[in-house]
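Example noted here:
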Amino acid sequence: MSQTAPIRSHRKPRQSASKLALRAGVAGGVLSTIAVAGAAAPATAEPLTEKTLEMPTLGSLGADLASAVSASAEASQQEALDQSLAAQENAALQKAAKDAKKAKAEADRKAEAEKAEKARAEAQERASRTAARTTLSAKSSSSSGSVASSSSSSQVATGSAAAIVAFARAQVGDAYVMGGTGPNSWDCSGLVQAAYRQAGIDLPRISGDQSSRGTAVSLSNLQPGDILYWGSRSGSYHVAIYVGGGKYVGAQNPSTGVVERDLDWDPPSGAVRIL
């Protein structure tokens, strides 16, 4: 090896001035950034400390679960109770409607039965009156002689009988109204009661009670003021006042009103004397 040969140096080759300047500029910029960040940070920044997270205990979890279960059970029980009450109300409404329908049907049935019974009673009463009139007509033919003899004789009312006869005759022409007691409309017993009141005598309101008073007299021995009746004495359906001369005054029916008629026009069943 030649002693004059160059020996390779182990030193790094020097960097050029431009590269050194570039590196110096980068380092300066980094340091400036760190300095600015440090100045901007709050002076009172709290140091980081270690914090421990608190975990719920098993006891609190169990209590919360029990409370939730209890609330759910109460809600279910309340819902069941509400449903039961609603079902009971429904059943009560249905029962009330059924009972009302049944009561209405029963009321309608009773009304129909009463209507039919009333019609039957009226038919029986009409039949009874027809039969009574037929019987009276048969009797009148046999007793026409006695009635005629009584009618032919002249009879003059006196005293209380005169007041009764005068009142009865004064009402001839008035209307007949069932239940009428005057002064311009009458039924048969209402007229007889009002006429007897003129003589100071109070009679019952019903024809059957009026014909039950006094003493029974025959149709051949009538006197003015006697009460004539049709039907049985205790169950008469019509009354009138004998006014003498074979005539009587009575409130007959809605068609005729108060009239004066001969005994032969509608022969009575009997007579009673109260004076």
Summary: The two ends are 201 Å apart (CA to CA). Strands lie at 175-176, 185-186, 215-217, 227-231, 236-244, 247-253, 257-262, 270-273. Residues 125-273 form a domain with the endopeptidase fold (from Nostoc punctiforme) fold (CATH 3.90.1720.10).
